[in-house]
Structures are given as structure tokens and as C-alpha cells.
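Hello, quick one for you while I still have it in my head. No rush at all, and the record is pasted right below.
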Amino acid sequence: MQTQAGNTAVLESASLPGGAPTATDPTCLDQTTKLLQEQGLATPAELHQLREHGLAPLQGPRPWDPLEFLTALRVGDPDARPLEVEQLGRALSQAMGQQLALVPFASRMSTPSAFYDLHENLLTECRRLMTPILYAEESEAIGVASINPVALGIAAEIIMHTIGEKTGTTPIVSRVLLHHDGWMSLCQQQFGI
């Protein structure tokens, strides 16, 4: 797929040969692990386990974001994991040269059903990346959210490309980080995961 910036993005299917879904999106996993490695935010052993777990068949009711996997490796107490996810998200955001806002109230935003009705393929892509749409103003200004700034970047490129191809106008896509609980709530609300 050709992205807005002219970069070629390989958007792999989030499934294994034979159709079994992977535990996390392979493209997001690859880009996240590369950035974690470049920034020294994970050890080689953690990155190996992250790749191994992320590319394994989906075992539970929903896919995982790579930052959730890394946090589960590091933090034994499930109640302490959201803070680690948030810290990793902020660190990756800074490494990418972005100061993304962390929006605590986003989980109370309603699902942009009309947007998803117009762009069903984007519902599929956003679900795959677990990047809920926060708002969509007539396909010209769109807000997308996640715990992972890498997933946000991938989603923003897909949204800009898809809508640009369809309408001839490339939308402005705003990206925001979410608290883990708010993100989970929005993923459940919008994607049923």
C-alpha cells in the first residue's frame, strides 16, 4: 500500500498461514519492537519473547497490543500494568518526535457510527490495530487513539490513504494516547474486543 508520505507500508494480514489470527498485528509488532530496540527501551530477551508471543496464534478473546505483552513480561501484578503501558507509550511517543496528549476522558466518547458506516474497511483496519476513532468531522478531521504511538502512526497512514483515495482529499488525522483502561473500554465499545 502506498501511504500519503510516499512510503511503502506492507500491511500484513494479522493471521498465520491457515487463517489462524496472531496474538498481535504483525506490522505493528515489527515496528514497535524496532523502535523499542533502537531506543533501548527493552532488553534483547524481552524483544525476543515479545516477537515470539506476538506472532503466536491468538489464545484469548482479543488480540493484544505489543506494549501490553512487554508490560506483562515485566510486571507481575496486573493492577500495576496500566502505569507501565502508559510510560512505554509516552517514551515511544517522545522517541518518534511526538508529544501526544494523554486523554483521560476519551472512553466516554461515543462511537462515530456514521464514519464507520461510510468506511467499513477502516473499521476493520482500526479493529486490527486496536485504534478506536474518537471523532470524525465529515472525513476531513479525524481523531484516532491508542496506547501505542506506533499503532497510531500506522492507523493514521491507512486512514489518510484510504480517505484520500476515496474522496480526493487527505484528512487531518489527530493522534492521542489513552490510559489503558480507557483504551480497553473504547475497544470493547467500538470493536467488541
